[in-house]
Amino acid sequence: MKATIERLNQYIGQEVRFGAWLANKRSSGKIAFLQLRDGTGFVQGVIVKNDVGEELFAQAKNLPQESSLYVDGTVKEDDRSPTGVELQVTGFEIIQEAEAYPITPKEHGTEFLMDNRHLWMRSRKQHALLRIRDEIIQATYAFFRENQFIKVDPPILTGSSAEGTTSLFHTKYFDEDAYLSQSGQLYMEAAALAFQRVFSFGPTFRAEKSKTRRHLIEFWMIEPEMAFCDHNESLEIQEQYVSHVVQAVLANCRQELTTLERDTSKLETIQAPFPRITYDKAVEMLQEAGYEVSWGEDFGAPHETYIAEQFQKPVFITNYPLEIKAFYMKPDPDYPETALCADLIAPEGYGEIIGGSQRIDDPQLMKQRYEEHNLSEEAYGWYLDLRKYGTVPHSGFGLGLERTVGWIAGTEHVRETIPFPRLLNRLYP
């Protein structure tokens, strides 16, 4: 019976065969214990000398780490195993005896592991992290499909910046200047006025020379945009979406969370609604706690961490000053010095995972913003067109996938939440 490790619990008492790699091994007298992985999971294979013969047993004991093989055996129930089963090995066929594997069970430095990222991702914890990432992606597609969103793909090469900033990767597009996308948001606004509810999911790039544990040069963003949607409705969708993703990971990645030693009790409380405070209140809280922060300043990591520590769930900070936010954000009619916007701050020091706002829908106000931010109609004329031909209230947000994976999985640095991270000084492998 051809099987995978992930589904061995469906074959208890049966003979199975699967392809695997030898992750580790140990032996005790006439018994050897093989830690096997096949990409879907890990399982212990027990091989007894008297059952398989001296020659095969000797081969098993001498197999180098990461050798590949086809394994035959009987699935046995085992309550001590994280998977609930182990394999009584009856035979195996060696595909390749691996060379000396550079990543051993001993401790290795981060730079060494990052140089060997193509191999490090095979390890249990890295494997668990990337499976959690996949679950979040699958839950994302399910949530938006269930809520009548369609996926639209924005371009990666653009002629302008989404937020009018300078942290862009410049390239040449034949004889024109072009940039790697910071965000698909502007294009999602165009799509929302065609399809009402849309989302994009793809890579974005920020040329920021940052080395913090929260930053990557290339990262993936989920960016929904909704027509006929105000700021409050957008906040409700955001908290429902985040709740859905967390609960999906809890339901489908228990073993991975255990491997990562994640305290799941902190995740089990993540259900909408989430608390909301204004920027004004956040400044007041920080000042009372002794932080030197003035109204009109953006918050840094220590500020966000302190605020998050005051709540058990992710917290929305709303109504940031208009001057420190992007040109397209709509002013709050009741507090015009601030924007109808919010950042969602994750618990446990993981910082902002979502930024969102209601967008300006008034063509005259948008034209005024172009002038204030020195934006050319040559580059942004198409975006202004969206306000000329059937403008409506619309809102959207962007969720950073890697920060979200880091928070849910409980890992310290976002570099481990993406298969091949791009950091300030790392373009290899």
UniProtKB/TrEMBL annotation:
Protein's UniProt keywords contain Nucleotide-binding: yes
GO cellular component: cytoplasm
Catalytic activity: tRNA(Asn) + L-asparagine + ATP = L-asparaginyl-tRNA(Asn) + AMP + diphosphate + H(+)
Protein name per the record: Asparagine--tRNA ligase
Keyword Protein biosynthesis attributed: yes
Example GO molecular function: nucleic acid binding
Coiled-coil ranges (or none): none
One of the Pfam families matching this protein, by short name: tRNA_anti-codon
Keyword field: Aminoacyl-tRNA synthetase, ATP-binding, Cytoplasm, Ligase, Nucleotide-binding, Protein biosynthesis
Subunit details: Homodimer.
GO BP terms in the entry: asparaginyl-tRNA aminoacylation
Record domain Aminoacyl-transfer RNA synthetases class-II family profile: where: 130-429
EC numbers, comma separated: 6.1.1.22
